[in-house]
Amino acid sequence: MKERNLSLGGVLLLTLVLIYAGILLLAPIFALVSHVFKDGFEPFWSAITNPQALGALWLSVRLAVIASIFNAVFGVMVAWVLVRHRFFGKSLLNALVDLPLVISPVIVGYVMIVLFGRTGWIQNFPIKLAFSWEGMLVLTVFVSLPFVIREIQPILGSMGKEQEEAAYTLGASSWGTFWRIIFPAIRHSLIYGIILTLARSLGEFGAVAVIGGGVQGSTESATIYIYRSLNDRNYAGAYSMALLLGIIAVLILVIMNNLRVHKRGG
Prior knowledge:
Elements: H1 8-36, H2 41-48, H3 51-84, H4 90-96, H5 99-102, H6 105-116, H7 133-143, H8 146-158, H9 162-169, H10 174-202, H11 206-212, H12 222-231, H13 235-265
């Protein structure tokens, strides 16, 4: 297809887009990198290898990985139920899946404190959720809930049942049919949803800050570490951790773009 030369309006539009992208994306990245490396690489390395920084980063990674695994498993189950089954309240359940996208994470964290805090409504819950990493995990799962479900739903909805019925006719079990027929069809969408979940979980701040309390060495995630470091005037630690999370985000973005290409090609 032959490309047309840009008109004056097209040139102005392209210029505005580049300026917009430069101000919102490139300028903050440039400012962050310049602050981190203004005294060389050593301050960055010292800040990142600080035991408190490593502990906060490890907690964020642990929460993100566990939440991604949980949402991968239950996300497929929920998507399957919403697509393949009819039941009372289905529309409500389908709407509730998007709740984490419209409700403030801070509000969710506060609700958890009201329910499971020391003076909360539920006193004898077997697992300590208030001011614990378990509570942070529950809220991390909640805020990243929709991504796997919404990625898989359209694929399952577009699949016919002929291949599944043929597999059942030939004696295949339900589990075997899932792995040989359904899973290959949703594989790329599932991986894409998992990566979105991972990215969302790593960047969560409000919900985990409220429910965890940001206790150093216990419930301080990487994002909370950045916030505390800024308050403590530890700018090297804050900028270095922010840059590291930014690098991880860029890597996730590259993987997502590659998966998008595979999804379109496959």
